[in-house]
UniProtKB/TrEMBL annotation:
SMART domains: PKS_ER. This is L-threonine 3-dehydrogenase. The gene is tdh_3. InterPro entries: ADH-like_N, ER, GroES-like_sf, NAD(P)-bd_dom_sf, YIM1/Zinc_Alcohol_DH_Fams. Residues 11-331 form the Enoyl reductase (ER) domain. Pfam families: ADH_N, ADH_zinc_N_2.
Amino acid sequence: MMKAFFIERYGNKDRVRTGDLPIPELRDTDLLIQIHAAGVNPLDTKIRDGAFKAILPYRFPLILGNDVAGVVVKVGAKVQRFKLGDAVYARPAADRIGTFAEFIAINEADVAIKPKELSMAEAASFPLVGLTAWQALIEQAQLKKGQKVFIQAGSGGVGTIAIQLAKHVGAIVATTTSKANFDFVKRLGADIVIDYKTEDFETILKDYDVVLNSQEGTIIEKSLRVLKPGGTLISISGPPDPAFAQEIGAKWPVRMLLGVLSYRIRKKAQQQQVRYSFLFMRASGEQLGELSSLIDAEIIQPVVDRSFAFEATKEALDYVETGRAKGKVVVTMR
């Protein structure tokens, strides 16, 4: 048995409880990882509240947690790339989450060797936000040197990594944050910094090639308007679109629902001759390995705001929910 933080049905923070659950069984291509640290993400609170229950049919009890760093303690019969004792990090596949625990089983294809210079806590803070930034800017937007990119919420978990990655590519980076974080995001590489409390980014930015949207409501439509024709808005906060429904193999009622939810923003994008797409990042050990090279070369550095003891996982979730974290929040097991 192992200690874990889990839910037995969807609901608010009072649904999260701690207790003993069985250690996961290994599939042939799985690694059993003894968890040293786990990243805490807004995604964890959304899953807890049932925000994705239509598209991710989890079974209960459901252990929360989407980022991990730890040590391989057991390998499946067909594992080829890892051995016992390897220090690794990963974002588990969306249907196999559960890093708020002492152990997790993950397919070796989703795992990478931990960068040597990072602590376990730093490493655990990185996979989900690193892969989100990579898949948005490199894979989907194909961001190039000299292009202009607007990265919202620059001091947040995704923002801190996306700014660094965009600057590495050679893009011109604009971002939003509070006045108190101006110097912080400039050190990360932001060229244009907008105070979201007192300034309207739509009046300052124009003819941008790419927007990485992490906000909801009217912000997303305003974001479309700062793009030039042919530009791309990639949203990690929704609404999900039909392409995403197809990607996850959703049944037709879900495909119809997501089509309706995203119809307005897709129509607006079409009218303005720009592209809208929703990104729900996926696990990838290969891409994480690419990012590890950038970490080893000191081109990208994880940003950890606060570290909580494993026993205080619920408090860590509460802190993330305030939206005030500068970079990432982690829980440490050992």
